[in-house]
Amino acid sequence: MISFASRRLQSVALTIVVLACVAYWTHWQGSVFEHSAFGTGYLLLAAILFLTLYNLRKKMPIPLWVTSTDWLQAHIYVGFSSAVFFGLHIGWRIPDGFIEGTLAGLYLATFVSGLVGLYWTRTIPHKLARVSEEVIFERIPRLRSRLRAKAEQAVLTTVRSAGVTTLGEFYGNRLQDFFENSRGLRYFLRPTSRLRKSLLAELTEVSRYLSEPERQASELLFALIRKRDDLDFHAALQWRLKMWLFVHIGLTYPLIIVASLHGLLAHLFDGGAL
After folding, report:
1. With b meaning 16 or more CB within 10 Å and e meaning fewer, what string describes 219-256?
2. Residue-range domain boundaries for the chain
């Protein structure tokens, strides 16, 4: 059985050979027909359409031997190849004109978002695996509500039974907002454990002044703070993946439309040979 490293090496080698052949073919067309824009344009459009199929693969009849992993690998290598096709198509120059500039901007934005997504899909799962258990994104609001209810119940029970309010006051001043509200856009863009560490340190400090019943309740609060922070971390990173996919796919369809319009106009201005 061929190892993953061997298959990757073979795929990289095959991609380099194909790109070298395309580069030679483009140079030959340019020397014989004076330009090769149509050939590279069709090749680039075909690559973009193939890349779009990755998002539609679950809705289309696909042979059983084509696994999701195979599609992903093909998506990655064709995506990198499309950058070479794009460079050959524009002659490695800065495009001019409104449509060409728009097309170049859409392609570059889509390509860069693909690179970002490739990095995130390789790194984020490992980061999440180090944080407690696996959490489904859609269940996070419900889990947050449960943690808040547990924290409030623990504090209220302690205040009523012990008749002291030190822990209750601390909860109202420092923890209530943490358990009830979202962390905000800044945290979602760059999640850190700063607030978690600060709250745990403050709770540790106030524990010196708590009664025995309050101290027992504070132990539960320590655990709930950690769990809530873990949920927020999951929410931020999973939200990042979902937003990236939304942007990446959202750029693809305008790219196809503008590329098709560009090709149509290129044929019309070349003499109407469609």
Report:
1. eebeebbbbbbbbbbbbbbbebbeebeeebeebbeebb
2. 4-131+248-269, 137-239
